[in-house]
Write a structure and sequence with these properties.
heterotrimer, A mainly alpha, B alpha/beta, C mainly alpha, A: mainly alpha, 7 helices, B: alpha/beta, Rossmann fold, 2 domains, six-stranded mixed sheet, three-stranded antiparallel sheet
């Protein structure tokens, strides 16, 4: 247990300076607006690259463009899940309310991103396999399980014991995050598991430089968009918490 | 023994009041309801404190936090020299499907107490006849007696009782009164109750909570008239 | 009293409470029997070929086992919540990890017994001959029961105070049980079709890894789950 919490102390030491710097952003309204605009510009430019610049891929044609959304949202989803894990650890060690609010925000955004991954995966898969879902495809099945874990996280937050949702949600977040690698490995070892995933990158499908530029931009756009959404949701959560505390303090003052 | 150690022993031998529990700036909310509001209190060894207050004043919440069963939203509780806590509430903190004897035996063993205490507790709390019955088969009053036996059996240094008399008959209240009067320098007792008349004689201090803050406190080692004055004022304001 | 002796004492307590109430075990067995009969009737009405039935038997066995276990386990936390006996233990100095281990041991034992009964029942319902692999199947059931108990005990502590605990526990546990499910199905399939595990099979490692992961998290976080 001592080793576990000293490890958490290291995480806190790494995260806190970052948090303090981002608080600078939170307090500076102009900076907030500029960053938000920047993210939307990046997303817009990425869309432009994907739909207007890159040519059709040789094997899969126009539908291959789903790849830019699918892979980018998958990477952002993994990042969101990692954020849930770290925030949950932080909350359990420090019982700092902001950590729990951050975990909730990352969980909600991660759930949406996971849904995007599944839908885009099925669209892409349908053109490749002529069926919407293949249970032999380990990555798609892993994301389906990940989606179910996010769903259970959301259900617990909404229907669990209201006085303990923070602690319980954190425990589930840690358990879920640690289980995902095991889920992926177990699916990969299933005998019917096949390499059905369209291997665009591995098979040298992105021949033109514009493919790589669009891919890089899409990943960056989704990462920054996810970070922005998490930040906005986090700020809403913090404001709700501050408002509740202010109301309770007002009662104390009146008393 | 070195001089420093001798002087520490002499200090302890003087039976000076030692703060057994110190609650600092405790706040606790349940949703949109603030139950405790930066409450600070200190309890000394040898005290029997009556904790009074209307419903929702924060008595039960305060006791649960001191017992370590609930976390405050802010603030802290520091233990003094105590190493064990006994807590009674309407939840009983016992297993309904075990007999009285099995329950007491379990708690006796895990707490590392002498097995002789078990027999003594059964006799003291008039539980010998129902010792072989499962807790869920007992009346509410007998269940409460069994739970009180569980609390006092291991001789904890801090005893926290939340409405202990609510289901007790007069005989059981007398047993409780005798247990509370048992002289013990190294024990602090805090009793949250509405049953003031039955327990006012054993109290050495009265604290009144109102909307999560301390509204009145008779003070440490208060004289009987002072204690009575606080109680009477509380009763008058809640008529 | 040593740490382990307290755990043993708590195991005796758990077993005693369960033997007196018999609620969890009864619910577990009834759920298993009912779902197994439904499955048997379903397979029969689908008029499946004997070879097809043999191929789906492992999946059906583990599906029924996991469903019956996760839907019944909410009852096991009721005994703690009834009189909040666990608070008495916490006050007496018992740690959450000791309580957790005792619960896992007793719950795993009940799950294991249930698995053995289910094997026999489904084998009879689906006309499968398991006599040659019975001992290996029993060990597999024991390992999977430990992993399952390690997870659902922690989740029962989380969901125990919710009004929807009966529904919440399956929702929380089933997505996390995929490694156990796949390991169970693949190993059972090997035992039934090949008479033993394949050389170099990774599934026992995955099963043990899953159980260890759940147990590690449970031992460390159970107390946080049950305390206010």
């Amino acid at each position: 247990m001592a080793g576990y919490f000293s490890g958490v102390g290291v995480v806190e030491g790494v995260v806190s300076p970052w948090y303090n710097r981002t608080m600078l952003v939170a307090k500076n309204r102009v900076l907030q607006i500029l960053l938000t605009l920047g993210v939307f510009l990046l997303v817009g430019y990425a869309q432009y690259m994907v739909f207007m610049v890159v040519p059709n891929e040789q094997v899969m044609g126009a539908v291959q463009r789903v790849f830019y959304f699918h892979v980018a949202s998958a990477l952002a989803c993994y990042a969101a899940f990692g954020a849930v894990f770290v925030a949950s650890l932080l909350y359990l060690s420090s019982r700092e309310r902001r950590a729990d609010i951050f975990a909730v925000a990352a969980g909600e955004v991660g759930f949406v991103l996971c849904t995007v991954v599944l839908i885009t995966g099925m669209i892409w898969g349908h053109s490749a396999w002529n069926t919407w879902f293949r249970w032999e495809e380990p990555r798609l099945v892993t994301f389906l399980v990940l989606w179910l874990i996010f769903l259970s996280f959301t259900v617990l937050r909404n229907f669990g014991d209201p006085t303990k949702t923070a602690v319980h949600g954190s425990i589930l977040g840690i358990l879920g995050a640690l289980s995902v690698p095991l889920v992926y490995i177990s699916i990969k070892f299933l005998p019917q598991s096949a390499r059905l995933h369209p291997e665009v990158v591995e098979h040298g499908g992105l021949k033109a430089p514009s493919y790589w530029t669009a891919f890089g931009l899409s990943v960056a756009a989704f990462m920054f968009l996810a970070a922005l959404l998490i930040w906005l949701r986090y700020r809403v959560g913090v404001l709700e918490h501050v408002a509740t505390e202010a109301l309770l303090d007002e009662e104390t003052y009146d008393a | 023994m070195r001089d420093q150690e001798r002087s520490v022993v002499r200090e302890v031998d003087r039976h000076e009041p030692v703060a057994m529990i110190t609650a600092c700036d405790l706040s606790k909310s349940f949703g949109a309801v603030r139950v405790l509001r930066r409450l600070s209190l200190s309890f000394q060894d040898g005290e029997v404190v009556l904790l009074l207050g209307a419903n929702g004043a924060g008595k039960s919440t305060l006791l649960r936090i001191i017992a370590g069963l609930s976390r405050p939203d802010s603030g802290s509780v520091c233990g003094g020299a105590h190493s064990s806590v006994g807590f009674f509430s309407h939840h009983l903190s016992m297993y309904a499907r075990l007999t009285v004897r099995e329950n007491l035996d379990l708690f006796c063993r895990v707490a590392g107490s002498d097995q002789a205490e078990l027999a003594r507790a059964l006799e003291l709390w008039d539980l010998t006849d129902c010792a072989a019955k499962q807790v869920h088969e007992l009346s509410k009053g007998t269940q409460a007696r069994a739970s009180l036996a569980r609390v006092f059996m291991t001789r904890p240094s801090v005893v926290l009782l939340d409405e202990p008399t609510s289901n007790l008959d007069n005989k059981s209240v007398d047993i409780l009164g005798r247990a509370l009067r048992e002289p013990s320098q190294r024990r602090c007792v805090v009793v949250a109750t509405h049953d003031i008349h039955r327990l006012r004689d054993v109290a050495t201090r009265v604290v009144v909570l109102e909307r999560g803050v301390v509204a009145a406190d008779s003070g440490l080692s208060a004289a009987r008239p002072q204690i009575s004055a606080v109680i009477d004022q509380y009763l008058e304001s809640n008529r | 009293m040593t740490w382990l002796r307290v755990v043993l004492l708590l195991c005796v307590k758990e077993a005693r409470v369960e033997l007196r109430g018999r609620e969890f075990a009864t619910l577990l067995l009834c759920n298993s029997i009912i779902i197994a009969v439904l499955v048997g009737a379903g397979v029969s009405s689908a008029v499946l070929d004997g070879r097809v039935t043999a191929r789906v038997f492992p999946m059906l066995l583990w599906l029924v086992f996991l469903l019956s276990a996760t839907t019944s386990v909410a009852r096991s936390s009721e005994s703690e919540l009834e009189g909040r006996g666990f608070e008495g233990l916490l006050l007496a100095g018992v740690t959450g990890s000791q309580m957790y281990l005792a619960k896992v041991i007793v719950t795993a034992t009940l799950f294991c017994l249930n698995f053995w009964v289910l094997c026999a029942l489904l084998a009879a319902a689906l006309d499968q001959n398991l006599s040659s692999v019975w001992s290996q199947l029993a060990v597999l059931g024991a390992l999977a029961s430990c992993a399952l108990a390690a997870l659902v005990t922690l989740l029962a502590g989380i969901a125990g105070t919710s009004r929807l605990r009966g529904v919440l526990i399956p929702i929380l546990s089933l997505p996390l049980l995929f490694p156990v499910f796949f390991a169970g199905v693949e190993m059972t399939s090997d035992l039934v079709t090949l008479g033993g595990l394949r050389q170099g099979s990774v599934w026992p490692v995955i099963l043990v890894a899953a159980g260890s992961l759940y147990g590690l998290v449970g031992v460390n976080l159970f107390e946080s789950a049950i305390r206010d």
